[in-house]
Automatic annotation (TrEMBL):
Localization per Swiss-Prot or TrEMBL: Cytoplasm
PROSITE patterns: PROTEIN_KINASE_DOM, PROTEIN_KINASE_ST
Domain Protein kinase, residue spans: 1-222
KW Kinase (keyword) present: yes
UniProt cross-references to Pfam families, sorted A to Z: Pkinase
Keyword terms of this UniProt record: ATP-binding, Cytoplasm, Kinase, Nucleotide-binding, Serine/threonine-protein kinase, Transferase
The name this protein goes by in its record: non-specific serine/threonine protein kinase
Signal peptide per UniProt: none
EC number(s) recorded for this UniProt protein: 2.7.11.1
Length: 245
């Protein structure tokens, strides 16, 4: 990265610091960084499968596969939250995969470090509008559990290929999230009852009722998880489509 062309250098530094301090199977592994003249080189684990976005925009996933993706993401969030880090930008773009189906969080530029995960709160509105929790949009005080809302939005994104309100401009989307609250999907009857309950738990309007990542991992939806290797054909299909464009 040419540092002269980076308007928000502090976000890059935050990204590096969080990755360096966060060693976990579901977080992209930071290796090293170097400054050469004015170029910053950051060496990270190579996730050759690309982003989850590449997959969900061209493939349909089973509930078991969605459960597996959600579980791996939630495990990464549990680790971050335990260490007082709020990711604040959970979405398919920031989930990277290996060819074998391993899933890891990346992009920590919007992270917030808090001293006490149980009581410390933030009020700054940061993230990507379509995945933002109500508390973040309305600038209310919030805890790490705001990432759980974004996890629920990501589940809808996987089902429908995009998050709610993506056809609206970002400001209109923020307004709709703030005023409409509960989000719905086009064909809720197509989901199993346990999947519907999982989405309802993650997208609960009352922030006090949001589960912590550690609690959410006990949800029966994760009993449906298929092996991560079942994602490999989807990754290969997405790569093939991208290659032929």
């Amino acid at each position: 990265m040419d540092l002269d062309k980076q308007p928000k250098k502090d976000l890059i530094i935050d990204d590096i610091l969080v990755m360096r301090a966060s060693r976990h199977l579901n977080i992209v592994n930071y290796i090293d960084s170097f400054l050469h003249k004015n170029d910053l080189w950051v060496v990270m684990e190579y996730m050759e499968g690309g982003s989850l976005t590449d997959i969900v925009t061209v493939n349909l996933m089973t509930e078991g596969q969605i459960a597996a993706v959600s579980r791996e993401t939630c495990q990464g969030l549990e680790h971050l939250h335990h260490h007082g880090v709020i990711h604040r930008d959970i979405k398919s773009d920031n989930m990277l995969l290996s060819l074998g189906g391993d899933i890891k969080l990346t992009d920590f530029g919007f992270c917030a470090q808090i001293s006490d995960p149980a009581s410390s709160k933030r009020t700054m509105m940061v993230g990507t509008p379509y995945w933002m929790a109500l508390e973040v949009v309305t600038r209310k005080e919030y805890r790490p559990k705001v990432d759980i809302w974004s996890l629920g939005i990501m589940a809808i994104e996987i089902i429908e290929g995009e998050p709610p309100y993506l056809n609206q401009n970002p400001l209109k989307a923020l307004y709709l999230i703030a005023t409409n609250g509960t989000l719905t999907i086009a064909n809720p009857e197509a989901l199993s009852s346990v999947f519907s309950d999982y989405i309802a738990k993650t997208l609960e309007v009352d922030a006090e009722k949001w589960p912590m990542a550690s609690e959410l991992l006990q949800h029966p939806f994760f009993n449906l998880c298929e092996p991560l290797r079942t994602l490999s054909p989807l990754i290969k299909a997405a790569r093939e489509i991208a290659k032929n464009k």
